[in-house]
Amino acid sequence: MDQMNLILCAVAAATLDVCALVLIMSAYHERSTGDRRWNRMTSFMELADYNAAYPLGCDEILIGRHASADIRLPDLSVSRYHAILTVSDGIWTITDMGSKSGTFINGVPVKQAQLRENDIIKLGNRQLIFRRRRDANVR
Along the 139 residues of the chain, how does pLDDT read in single tens digits? Predict the structure, then answer.
């Protein structure tokens, strides 16, 4: 009887191990599928200036001088909450948040505008380029 209980315990433990492995593999697959879907939706875009690149990792990104901004530009010419980037169906839009110095796309002042690859965004004295990410892993 003890031997039978031992066998049943071993079978139960093996079953739990297999279930855990299946869950781990499913979670990994779902994450990689989600990452691919997100990258397709965002067109692998980033904002960059002369010394930094800012990957656009969510569907709403606050740009400003404040410490809580998603992209923080510590420059007094940039408002604390200067502009917000949003993406929908792969189309990125920038909206000025009532900043004092304004938001410019390719030299034109905008309150809201759709972005295209290689657009130059000017916030205060800072210029950022909206470009495709330069990661080696991006295809």
Answer: 778 888 888 888 888 888 888 888 888 877 777 666 665 656 688 999 988 999 888 889 999 999 999 999 999 999 999 999 999 888 899 999 999 999 999 999 999 999 999 999 999 999 999 998 876 454 4
Return d(Cα 126, Cα 77) in angstroms, integer: 8
Integer-rounded Cα radius of gyration of the chain: 24
> Would you call 56 exposed, middle or buried from its count of C-beta atoms within 10 A (0-12, 13-18, 19+)?
buried
φ and ψ at residue 18, rounded to 5 degrees: -65, -45
Number of H helices, E strands in the chain: 1, 11
Please check whether residue 120 is in contact with residue 105, taking contact to mean a CB–CB distance below 8 angstroms. yes
Contact by Cβ (8 Å): 130, 121? yes
